[in-house]
Amino acid sequence: MPNVAHLQVGDQSLELPVIIGSEDEPAIDIATLRAKTGYITLDDGFRNTGACQSRICFIDGDKGILRYRGIPIEELAERSSFLETAYLIIFGDLPELAEFRHFCDHVRENMMLHEEMRHHFEAFPPSAPPMAILSAMINALSCFHPELLQIEDEETFHEVAAHLIGKVSTLAAFAYKFSVGQPAMYPRPDVDYCSNFLHMMFSRPYAEYHADPEIARALDLLLLLHAEHEQNCSTSTVRMVGSSGASLSASVAAGVCALWGPAHGGANVAVIEQLEQIVREKVSVDTFLERVKRHETRLMGFGHAVYRNFDPRAKVIKTAADRVLKILNRQDALLDIAKELEEKALADDYFASRKLYPNVDFYSGVILRALGVPHSMFTVMFAIGRMPGWIAHWCEMHFDPSMRISRPRQVYVGAPLRHYIYSFAERTPCEPASAAASGTTAG
Ligand code: CMC
Questions:
Q1: Is the pLDDT reported for residue 346 higher than 60?
Q2: 344-369 b/e with 16+ CB inside 10 Å = b?
Q3: How far is CA 32 from CA 15, 124, 251, 366, 407, in A?
Q4: 359 Cα nearest atom in ligand 1
Q5: Which of 87-101, 317-331, 418-432 has the highest mean pLDDT?
Q6: Distance between CA 257 and CA 382 in Å, rounded?
Q7: Ligand 1 close to Cβ of residue 161 (< 6 A)
Q8: Where in the sequence numbering do the catalytic residues fall?
Q9: Which residue, among 289, 279, 261, 257, has the nearest Cα to 390 in the 3D structure?
Q10: What residue owns the CA closest to ligand 1's atom 27?
């Protein structure tokens, strides 16, 4: 592979360095392009722009490959756990036993929230979307735990990372409890991360919820599969916000907001709502797919900005969905419809020619539904899972001595220079009173 690229701009000829990634992905470094030629590059949606060099995650969208710190997602899904994988993603390597124990203890010890934070939950209306609460409360964390703002070295970062992973699950469960008018349940020190979350979600005073280990394991797998996905919309947001020097908690709170949209993390809700709509309206799968092909709607849970092949996470989740329903001895008509949609869509030229395959969200909602997690919490579950990835990216950037504030440029296509020709302000130096306030009415 060449180590320089040649670019001809008008009569100017330029040599630009080529950077080769560890999986042989080549990139042209255009950092000096504007200074040398006056040109910038234009790449709507940054689909062809590398925003950084990163060691955390590798995706080959054409081949359907996903690796965290070099390890294939399939191996982690089969043999690791969410917290061990979180450690790997954040700190770069799988932990030794003592390191892992220390990390897990630290996560557990930090699940408790400052008691004063409970009052903030009470101030939200019961109808408040849990994603809004989660983002607001992650931001509020630093008011009650100022140590979150003091990440001076990698050692304090280790503490804070465990702190955030512990607290986010409690914040999420509290948001749910307040939304259903039930008292918040405090975390338990004696159970694993996912059993603890299920306890905080579903226990009531005098009615302890005992999570089936298989169910806790299914939730653990779901979180693991969502833990990291390189420069997706929410992670890029975390990096963008963090590049100004903003704190880790402020940056991940912004990540939660970015995740909320239906084209990103919100798709897991949209998938289930779409499946329910199919059942409610008694539409056949064939008729529904015709609507999709006429561009009247999108098949939610299909397609991906990077994968032009199976999303490897979708394959694992599909098997897990089957297993969870079997353990719970439950039938779910939505799973049957999802399978039929998948089978027919994959055989259809519309989807094949556009390389649209099921993504991670296609089956995750079926599992969450079976676990009793309400729709409003689906994207919150994604946020809990994605926390290690956000933390790792913030850290990678924060401790990089060459970090600079992110500042894309634009091509301005608005009005050319024009002059100020008419002004109310010249006659009245303040804003004109509104018609309602001045008592005048139209007509
Ligand atoms: N159903 C039907 N048609 C689709 C779909 C879909 N889900 N996705 C893309 N297309 C069509 C689109 O209409 C367009 O067709 P045409 O060329 O005739 O205009 C073509 O495929 C290319 O679409 P695009 O919008 O350029 O594709 P994109 O790569 O920008 O979109 C996407 C990626 C994920 C936003 C999109 O596939 C989508 O909206 N999918 C449904 C939402 C979803 O499942 N999102 C979760 C993504 S995975 C979780 C995560 O990482 O956040």
A1: yes
A2: ebeebeebeeeebbbbbbbbbbbbbb
A3: 10, 49, 29, 49, 15
A4: 48
A5: 87-101
A6: 12
A7: no
A8: 304, 361
A9: 257
A10: 305
94-136 pLDDT, tens digit per residue, is 999 999 999 999 999 999 999 999 889 989 998 899 999 999 9
N- to C-terminal Cα separation, the chain: 74
Phi, psi of 71 (to 5 degrees): -95, 125
CA distances, 436 to each of 65, 425, 431, 439, 440 (Å): 61, 20, 14, 5, 6
Nearest partner of 311 among 270, 342, 333, 275, judged by Cα? 342
Q: Phi and psi at residue 9, in whole multiples of 5°?
A: -120, 110
- Distance of CA 320 from the midpoint of ligand 1 (Å): 24
Question: What is the identity of the amino acid at 171?
Answer: L
Question: At a CB cut-off of 8 Å and minimum separation 6, what does 127 contact?
Answer: 179
- Tens of pLDDT along 53-78? 999 999 999 999 999 999 999 999 99
What are the residues whose beta carbons fall under 8 Å from the beta carbon of 123, sequence distance 6 or more? none
For residue 354, how far is its CA from the centre of ligand 1 (angstroms)?
Answer: 9
pLDDT for 435: 64
Give the distance (Å) from ligand 1 centre to CA of residue 302.
Answer: 7
Choose one of 292, 355, 359, 362 to mutate for the ligand 1 pocket test, by most ligand atoms within 8 angstroms of C-beta: 359
Spell out where 11-60 has E strands: 12-20, 26-28, 57-60
pLDDT over 90 at 196, yes or no: yes
Residue 310, SS3?
coil
3-state secondary structure of 54: coil
Q: Identify whether the C-beta of residue 16 lies closer than 8 Å to the C-beta of residue 30.
A: yes
Q: What is the pLDDT of residue 443?
A: 42
Q: Is 90 exceeded by the pLDDT of residue 151? A: no
State the DSSP H helix or E strand holding residue 72, giving kind and residue range, or none if neither: strand 71-72
Overall average pLDDT of the 35-39 stretch: 94
Residue nearest to atom 50 of ligand 1 (CA): 264
pLDDT for residue 45 is more than 50: yes
HEC letters along 158-189: HHHHHHHHHHHHHHHHHHHHHHCCCCCCCCCC
